[in-house]
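name: query_chain
kind: protein
chains: 1
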Amino acid sequence: MKKTQTIVSILLTVIFICLLSSGVYSQELKQSSTNRGAFSRFIHHEKVAFKLNYFGELVLHPGLTLGVDYTLSQNNRLTVHWDVDLGGYWHRWNNTSLFLKSTIGTRVAAGSVFADINAGIGYMHSFAAGTIYQRAADGGVEKANNRGHAHFMPNASFLLGYDSTRKGNRHWTVHLGPEVYLQSSYNHIFLPHIAMNVGITYKFKQQ
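structure:
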């Protein structure tokens, strides 16, 4: 189990670094002659914010997501944004799951308080907790490799939050709310899940 958790941690780190360096928003960034300059431009782009969330699947199954929030359009009351999140959660004695999801959200603000509705799709890969066995060629039982299972992951969330950027030169927002998602190909059905999202978003540069 410890070996699986180590592999999961390494995968989360590597995939997130690749996500940041892939140039998802390259059409909005100016070309730079050095990697450091390009990375700095990305981080400080006025439409880019970074997210860190506690993702409690069924509340009691702890998880974490890291993400990027990109503002598509914005006025005083309404913001439309595109998010990409990478994360995972641990269900004790059952499975460890990793996922990558993309959502479109609409955020309605009343002063510094906002409501945020999001919907999107994602990919999940789950690894069973413990040893897996399979039938051997001689009719007995042998250990099998735990390569995990792939799942389609449509999702939606409703978040309430506080936006400090609307008061003074601040850069963060906080939010919380439920997220529901479906896990495909689970005993031939779409298995429903609910998670609690609690997190913070930080933008290095304001518009």
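note: The longest strand covers residues 95-110.
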